[in-house]
Amino acid sequence: MPLLHSIVHRLDPTLDGERLTLTAAPVEADSAEPVMESLVSALNDTYNTKPKGWGRFAEEGEHAGPLSVWLKDYLAGEQPFTELATALAERLVSKLQEQLSVSGYLVISHQRQGDTETLFMGLAHQREGIGIDDSHQAVPAAQLNTRQLTLAARINLSQWQSDSPDAQYVSFLKDRGGKKLGEGMAALLGMEEGIDAPAETRTLLKAFSDYVEKEDLDDEASREKTDTLVDYANDQMSRGEPMTLDELSALVDEKQPKAFYEHIRNADYGLSPEIPPDKRTINQFRRFTGRAGGVSISFDSHLLGSSIEYDATQDRLIIKQVPKQLKEQLTKQS
């Protein structure tokens, strides 16, 4: 992941905890330095695994902000990276000083991976550790905790510049317990939230389950396709990119690469062409299968506790919503 530009500012709360102070770096970091690239890469890896809010820049109204204008000037070569980063840090201080009460280092970077360029911002904290010096003695060694981010955001500059009406190119960390911080981040970025990643991911998995049932696949084929979907989602998460319906459809069924996509469109699930995968929802999605004594059962794990219940004391599986095809067969038999 080549770094094009990077810089590190410091944020500190005042003694009364009511304001933030910014100590801006006078110059850029050396982006060619491997350690700096490793730092930014580690922060991005952490960011990719966290719940996020997604959206795009607000063009007008109360949600609109100056960041999109600053970025246009920067990408046009009319504003240096240091000026952009300092302006962004100053805006963060003004918008979020009531929500932040601990010191940290604000890392801002412009990076390229393949054909995609992004602007990343993350607040990391320093922690005390132990190191060994040249004389083989234990000594205090401060280090940044790259596994924990108080706040972070990323803008997919390539998607933004493509001007796609469906692109959700702005994202930010959205901790379930930090509503005010999330609202402050959205205001800082001047964005309107769009896709609800957990809800969209759940709808996609529901569409997939319906597709598997409609195709009447056997257990092995069903497990194989489920693994394909989960592997694809996890791969996109690790890269910080959304799932695309057409790409997923081609992976789910290589012989009929448009089949799953057409199933989604024909059934009108209301899914966006690109869906940011939600890690928690994906991790809960697996299929339970079993066969014994002439009985074969297979169902998606996320149905357990809702339409399917397991009574461990009685060793009973209770199906609340019997599939239509099975219901018709049972009704005829009775």
Automatic annotation (TrEMBL):
Organism: Vreelandella subterranea
Magnesium among keywords: no
Keywords, comma-separated and alphabetical: Cytoplasm
Subcellular location: Cytoplasm, Nucleoid
UniProt record similarity statement: Belongs to the YejK family.
The UniProt record lists the keyword Ion transport: no
GO cellular component: bacterial nucleoid
GO MF annotation terms: double-stranded DNA binding; single-stranded RNA binding
Record's protein name: Nucleoid-associated protein
